[in-house]
């Protein structure tokens, strides 16, 4: 027979856990709403910037812009910006992301890495990857966008890297987030993929297409990084909210099971005591 005192203590412990996970779920839900709004609005803005770059790219000579062409001196190394989370308790979000990262880049020592998030940084350190910068300690990851863009562009223009990739969890809905990879430098791939579907529009550009393009491209790089960070943050809060909701539901289910065991144990104890009293009385008579 299970100890009544032990069961009572376990029920109390599980109730405390349920209260904590419920509070964490509510906090994550509040953060998720704000992050989701930013991610969705930022995604529309990023698409507009992308369309503008594609449109201008069709009208300009990409051979004269270093960010649009593959480097003449290839090194075989790439710069990978890995966006993970600083905290856990968000289900399989980081596990899926890091598994996707290792499948995409099986030879970790072949590239250089910049981490945004402690989970990714810890993995790179354990595997001996070349971690050249870590922005996990930043108050908000969005603040790191100019530094990340400058690091990516300068490394590419100095022929240190053949390309720059982003790896992050893209936000689709509160229930759906998937790890993705995107090449942000060079832009040749993006142009080739959209060339067949691009719509040519005739409009006046001042002062010149090349000058506008030169100013727009660095902003485009920053925007791609910022959009990935907003997507990753929305994914984190959504995954944590769902994970805490599942934990709360599991705790409540466990409370019901323990309460049933507790009631059975009490009933067995009462039945045993009554039986003992009857036996004692019959013995005395």
From TrEMBL:
Pfam family, one: ATP-synt
GO terms under biological process: proton motive force-driven plasma membrane ATP synthesis
Keyword annotations of the record: ATP synthesis, Cell membrane, CF(1), Hydrogen ion transport, Ion transport, Membrane, Transport
Gene Ontology MF terms: ATP binding; proton-transporting ATP synthase activity, rotational mechanism
Locations listed in the record: Cell membrane; Membrane
Principal location listed in the UniProt entry: membrane
InterPro entries xrefs: ATP_synth_F1_ATPase_gsu (IPR035968), ATP_synth_F1_gsu (IPR000131)
Membrane topology: Peripheral membrane protein
CDD domains in the record: F1-ATPase_gamma
Top-level lineage group: Bacteria
One of the record's GO cellular component terms: plasma membrane
Known role: Produces ATP from ADP in the presence of a proton gradient across the membrane. The gamma chain is believed to be important in regulating ATPase activity and the flow of protons through the CF(0) complex.
Entry's family note: Belongs to the ATPase gamma chain family.
Quaternary structure and interacting proteins, as annotated: F-type ATPases have 2 components, CF(1) - the catalytic core - and CF(0) - the membrane proton channel. CF(1) has five subunits: alpha(3), beta(3), gamma(1), delta(1), epsilon(1). CF(0) has three main subunits: a, b and c.
Protein name as it appears in the record: ATP synthase gamma chain
Species per Swiss-Prot/TrEMBL record: Candidatus Gottesmanbacteria bacterium GW2011_GWA1_44_24b
């Amino acid at each position: 027979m299970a100890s009544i005192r032990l069961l009572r203590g376990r029920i109390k412990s599980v109730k405390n856990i349920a209260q904590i996970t419920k509070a964490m779920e509510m906090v994550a839900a509040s953060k998720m709403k704000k992050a989701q709004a930013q991610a969705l609005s930022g995604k529309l803005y990023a698409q507009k910037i992308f369309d503008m770059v594609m449109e201008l790219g069709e009208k300009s000579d990409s051979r004269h812009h270093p960010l649009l062409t593959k480097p003449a001196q290839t090194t075989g190394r790439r710069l990978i910006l890995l966006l993970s989370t600083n905290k856990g308790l968000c289900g399989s979000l980081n596990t899926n992301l890091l598994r996707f990262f290792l499948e995409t880049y099986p030879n970790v020592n072949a590239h250089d890495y910049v981490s945004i998030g402690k989970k990714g940084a810890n993995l790179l350190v354990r595997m001996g990857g070349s971690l050249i910068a870590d922005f996990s300690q930043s108050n908000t990851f969005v603040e790191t966008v100019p530094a990340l863009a400058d690091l990516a562009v300068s490394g590419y223009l100095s022929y240190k890297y053949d390309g720059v990739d982003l790896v992050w969890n893209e936000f689709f809905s509160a229930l759906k987030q998937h790890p993705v990879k995107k090449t942000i430098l060079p832009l040749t791939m993006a142009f080739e993929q959209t060339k067949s579907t691009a719509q040519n529009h005739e409009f006046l550009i001042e002062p010149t297409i090349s000058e506008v393009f030169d100013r727009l491209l660095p902003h485009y790089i920053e925007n791609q990084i910022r959009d990935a960070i907003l997507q990753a943050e929305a994914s984190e809060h959504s995954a944590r909210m769902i994970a805490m909701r599942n934990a709360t539901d599991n705790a409540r289910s466990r409370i019901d099971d323990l309460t049933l065991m507790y009631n059975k144990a009490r009933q067995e104890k009462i039945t045993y005591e009554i039986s003992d009293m009857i036996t004692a009385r019959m013995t005395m008579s």
